[in-house]
Design a protein that fits this description.
With 252 residues, this protein is of the alpha/beta class. It has two domains: 114 residues, 3-Layer(aba) Sandwich (D-Maltodextrin-Binding Protein, domain 2), CATH 3.40.190; 103 residues, 3-Layer(aba) Sandwich (D-Maltodextrin-Binding Protein, domain 2), CATH 3.40.190.10. 44% of the residues lie in helices and 21% in strands. α3 runs parallel beside α4.
Length: 252
């Protein structure tokens, strides 16, 4: 009898061990979310809330939206793309890379100044032609850079600033903000939301007729974890209030 009990116990231990192995093997992988760098602060809050509510872990990859688009288009693993420029969502749709997409947020371009910029009397975009003014304008490869270029073109300032006032071409909106915050340049162009995130007071706000329509949108990547990606995008759609705190508006 003791012999049979011993065998039964061993079998139960073996089954438990095998079940444990199976559970580990079938553990669901985290969602891979690619997102524009300027979205980091509110999106991190959304990610934490979503994980707490659902138990689904998320690994974010922040960077310039154009660079993230290129990574996805080249086949890098991704489940969700939160772009700072709707055109990159459209590109992925044209490439056949998405199963669904949604326009979520809108923003505006603003001119901000550093402490030194304030001392030099920068009050509006026309003041950028004053002597010894240094400006940061993001690289046109990033959405913020292209929108900023549009503002310069539409206000007739492109040629006026062609003699070297633009001292830096950072690759992300956060880098422009940091340069202004640290007084490394006199002025820079940011999203209204980014200015709010860095506590930089805009001296001038530009209409979308000057910058172009600024739409932040989300795409679900074909071939990824589409079901859980949809759960996450639905969560973001219901929690846009986190973004309103920083100056974004809900897409109409």
């Amino acid at each position: 009898m003791n012999y049979k009990i011993g065998i039964t116990a061993c079998l139960l231990i073996g089954i438990t061990f095998l079940c444990g192995c199976t559970s580990t093997t079938e553990e669901v992988q985290p969602l891979l979310v690619y997102a524009g760098a300027g979205l980091k602060v509110p999106l991190d809050v959304n990610i934490a809330g979503f994980t707490q509510e659902t138990g689904i872990k998320i690994i974010p990859n922040y960077g310039p939206s154009g660079g993230l688009y290129a990574q996805i288009n080249e086949g890098q693993p991704a489940d969700v793309f939160f772009s700072a420029d709707w055109k990159f969502i459209e590109k992925l749709e044209d490439d056949g890379k998405l199963t669904d997409s949604i326009k979520l947020l809108e923003d505006n371009i603003v001119l901000v100044r550093s402490k030194t910029g304030e001392e030099k009397g920068i009050e509006k975009i026309q003041d950028l032609v004053k002597p010894d003014i240094s400006i940061a304008v993001a690289d046109p490869g990033a959405p913020i850079g292209q929108y900023s270029e549009n503002v310069l073109d539409s206000t007739g300032m492109t040629e006026a600033l062609s003699q070297g006032a633009i001292k830096a071409r950072p690759s992300t909106v956060n880098q422009v903000a940091l340069m202004v915050e640290k007084d490394e340049v006199d002025a820079g162009f940011l999203y209204s939301s980014t200015a709010s995130l860095y506590n930089l007071t805009p001296v001038q706000r530009f209409d979308t007729t000057q910058s172009g329509e600024i739409v932040f949108g989300i795409g679900i990547i074909k071939g990824g974890d589409e079901k859980r990606a949809k759960e996450f995008t639905d969560y973001l759609d219901k929690h846009t209030d986190e973004y309103m705190k920083y100056g974004w508006t809900r897409y109409a």
